[in-house]
Amino acid sequence: MTMGHRLRLGAGSAALRVQRWRAERRYDRRAPDPGSPLNPPLRSTIRMREMMSRHYLAGRSVSGSRPVAWVTSGAPTEILKALGYHLVYPENHAALCGARRRAEALSSAAEDAGYSRDLCSYARTDLGSLLSGDTPVGSLPPPDLLLCCTNICQTVLYWYRVLADHFGCPLVLVDTPFLYGDAAEPHQVDFVRRQLEDMVPAAEAAAGREFSLDGFTAVVARAKQASDLWLEILERARHRPSPLTAFDSFVNLGPIVDLRGDQATVAFYESLLAELDERIARGVGAVKDERLRVLWDNLPIWYRIGPLSRWLAERGVNVVASTYTHAWGELAEMMDPAEPFEAMARVYLHPILNRSTGHKLAAMRRMVEEFSIDGVILHSDRSCKPYSLGQIDQRDRLVADVGVPALLLEADHNDPRSYAEEQATTRLEAFVEMMS
Amino acid sequence: MTVTHRPSRSEAIARAEARGQRIAAVLPYHYPRALLRAHGFHPVEVWGPPGVPRDEGGRHFQAYTCDIVVRATSFLLRGGLERAGVLLVPHTCDALQGMGSVAGDFLQPSQHVLTLYLPRAGRPTDREYLVAELRRLSDRLAGIAGGRPTDAGWADALAAEEAADETLAALYRDREALAVGDREFYEVVRSREYLAAEEFVEAAAAVPRGTAPSGIGLLLSGIVPEPMSLFDHLAEAGARVVADDLAAGARRLYPPSDAADPIERLADRLLGSPPDPTRGTPIAARAAALAGRMAAAGAKGMLIYDVAFCEPELFDVPLLRRHLGDAGYPVAHVEVELGGELGHRVITRIEAFVETLA
Fold it and tell me: What's the average model confidence in pLDDT over A161-180?
């Protein structure tokens, strides 16, 4: 990193810190809004925004000083962290573009280049950004390595093959057989463990650095700590009223996905947990008049998070849990720093997205019980077929066997053109009425 | 048997049953035929079927799910697969993953639902995994069949299926010396989807030798050429398919293996299949292989003929267009739904493309 880069990074970090202080001061001084159905948002979110902005800022000047890897959201990044890689998550970047209402324009840029509108909108957003050079984060550092793990979908492999063609850098594949049964079979675990071991020399070569088992173990230990905390945070929503909504957890998901394995992430989630406990102690819920509790299935609708959260809160509905955010916490118990390769092979085989439709139904049934759920919204996400296929039967079973109202809400996680506001509102109104 | 008198699907099934084989309905598209045969199963592939309405399948899968999965589910629920004792769903893509999972967890048909996860690369680790995965499938089949294949059973199955595969490869090699149009050629190629290996060899032998019809050479890429009237439209436009990159075609030209162990042999052959987006082939390598195939066959351009919502195919289109364009081969892309005849818009698009190649 040149002196100029270092100075710019230092100045940028300082500016972000000042921005956070100001935001926190505004937060502390602001008067309660009696007209809002929601209590003030979590104060910790301000700090999370600073962390994520700092990460993207660091990416702008990292080329040449640290190796850079672009990785999928379910990838085994602990090995790369141990080698000092700066990680870029195209999915997170795409979600950020979605939340800032930039996804439609970027998707159009990809579609103009020939990418079908039927493809995943994260991929279209990210490829559109790549092709147009337009991004709300200033710029993304080009990768020295691409790491693609199929435990969330096969889409990522198609997408990363495009990225590999574009950047001409190595693509490391961690292929995780889909688990149709109850748990991974020995040959599936062996397959993933061996790929993780084989990944080390490829990552070393691209980084020009030597792998340290001690370093890897330490990263795994911190990742486990953060994942444990994340699960604890999500479990706090069992309280009535819940101190957080699933929309809060969607927003605060960034560090556990992007910065897992960092000490700062552990510290952040400790502070977030403390804030939730403080809310619980004071009896403060995220929704002022929480009467109905809902489970969300699938990715969020990034461009509608705020309005949807408010619309539901106005009707006394709190979406307290989601299958999606739990995915980054529920496997913490499998993480074992004492046997990092074997344990991480199991961890990366078992995300909910790599498991059967029956397993997901069982997970939802359990969550209905544990979180005292009154209804389930299954976001039928046009862009995420592996998460969405099976939802029709899951909804039918939830209604028939569990006895909770369940709504299939047609949308897309990042492309607003696939969301019909009026139709969605009508269906949500009927759903709320059924729960009441 | 002549080229126009092959056994129908129903006849092939009846013959297999008469031989004492059980029927395995198999979804697209890479799977070990000899493994099924060795365990006493006759594979019959299910590519929709295109004529079956989406209705019943649409009660389990969203509108944005590909036709093959939805129509196959309709077919299953309508009893179209009732003669099958096994439903094998290879993990070809996320949509077929969904079908395999929903069938096993929720539909629970009378057939045993079996799955097969094919690795997405060709590394030594992938081979070891695939061998273990095929052994797992073999165990399941043995459990259903009530016994394991004998050495002689394995030898018979491997010999028959490898002979049929070689016959398929020879059909492609000898394309220019076959006096049949594209539609007839692909009807023979696709009869491999349901005929027994020996019947397929016989069907191929019945294809008349001579000179292939002339026309502007095209390479046809995609999953499945349905409706088959596509070939009539191509012929009317003055084009001829001189090579293909079809999942229902040349993507299943498996190379030989010299492994002695039957399962290892099957794994080697599956892993050696031609470049294929569902198997993770790098796009540039795939484009180079396609360009080589087009040069060898005298194709002037490539038509990508996709089933709607097929992600593995759709992702590659822009870069194939660019790489092949750089190599001097124009590319056209159309998307279709499986039911019914080709729409006017698609036909016009194809005709316009062929015109540009003339």
Answer: 97
Which B residues in the span 303-332 are in contact with A, Cβ-Cβ below 8 Å? Answer: 308-309, 311-312, 314-319, 321
pLDDT at residue A1, as a whole number? 58
Contact B62 A158 (CB under 8 A): no
CATH 3.40.50.620 fits B213-357, yes or no: no
Which residues on adjacent β-strands are paired with residue B336? B307
Q: Tell me whether residues B311 and A118 touch, CB distance under 8 A.
A: yes
What residues in A contact B120, CB-CB < 8 Å?
Answer: 150, 154, 157, 173, 175
CA distance A110 to chain B (A): 10
The CA-based dihedral angle spanning residues A96, A98, A101, A105, taken in that order and rounded to the nearest 10 degrees: 110
Q: What is the rounded distance in angstroms from the CA atom of residue B3 to the CA atom of residue A256?
A: 62
Pair B214, B17: CB distance under 8 Å: no
Which residues in chain A have Cβ-Cβ distances shorter than 8 Å to B283?
161-162, 164-165
Q: Which fold has domain B9-149?
A: Rossmann fold (3.40.50)
Check B91 against A177: CB less than 8 A apart.
yes
Give whole-number Cα distances, B222 to A283, B47, B70, B335, in Å: 59, 13, 18, 10
Annotated domain spans of chain B = 9-149, 213-357
Same fold, B9-149 and B213-357: yes
pLDDT of residue B1: 43
Contact A178 B117 (CB under 8 A): yes
pLDDT tens-place string over residues A243-283: 999 999 999 999 999 999 999 999 999 999 999 999 999 99
B104 exposure class (CB count in 10 Å sphere: 0-12, 13-18, 19+):
buried
**Three-class secondary structure assignment of B127-178:** HHHHHHHHHHHHHHHHHHHCCCCCHHHHHHHHHHHHHHHHHHHHHHHCHHHE
A260 residue type, one letter: R
